[in-house]
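Structure tokens please, single chain.
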Amino acid sequence: MPVITFREALRQAMDEEMARDDRVFLLGEEVAQYNGAYKVTQGLWEKYGDKRVVDTPITEEGFTGLGVGAAMVGLRPIVEWMTLNFALMAYDQVVSNAAKTRYMSGGQFKLPMVMRGPNGPAEYLAAQHSQALQSIFAHIPGLKVVSPSTPYDAKGLLKTSIRDDNPVIFLEGELMYAWKGEVPEEEYLIPLGKADVKREGSDVSLVSYGKPMRVTLEAAEKLEKEGINAEVIDLRSIKPLDEEAVYASVRKTHRCVIVEESWPFASVGSHLGWLISRNAFDYLDAPVEMVASEEVPMPYNHKLELAVQPQVPKIVAAAKKVLYLDN
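Here you go.
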């Protein structure tokens, strides 16, 4: 299979869906002539023109609302937020309109739109541009929330999201755009709400999604060298959530560590920990542990920035704790 970058996988997904369905169009800041802030949309404006790839002013609330209206009248917009931090400016449109219109209209309106962009910390971006905001979107009924960790998953999940008749928040990562992986040339789709076992194991379940999957897999390799066989579950989709895949792993390993880069209070991980404790309690041999970002605004200093986020030593320590191997 060809090896391509995460950004190329996203571009292929949008290109294929725009070619397949002329109702699909892209809008956002600098997505057209500049080829996107992170070059995800490179070449699409030249191929599809001004009506299908639309540069917008720096007005997230405005162009997200435009996307909602376009979806209501039968188009299938892809709204690119330059960063999820800027999506906070559009949060009212997302929550009050995108998430609720289909329900409040009794199904008379569909909302087939994707809102995508980088989520979470990158490097040297400080507190206002390093927020992992998946929990505030996952909190809202009516939204689907997707967070791939590989180019293969990114392409298959984005194509599925574009075809969905509900609003989808599609979470990427600034540091992920250059990650490489195998992606088939033939068309494929990945269903939303289907987790993936990235690594089989028997001693402890490590559950994560999105960018932290890389350090989670690295932690599993380190644990393997110490004789601990960790299973790694990639949720891929936060809403809908593949609970059964997580429970199946916990039934096998009897221990679980959840890894995510958002703050721990009222997070996706804390909710998942409650679900595991409620629905797989009898299989647990230790309390569920969670490795999340520290509950502080992101520091600018790079050493402190790294210390705040989930890292391999933290995940290894949590795994040993649920195995009662910590000192």
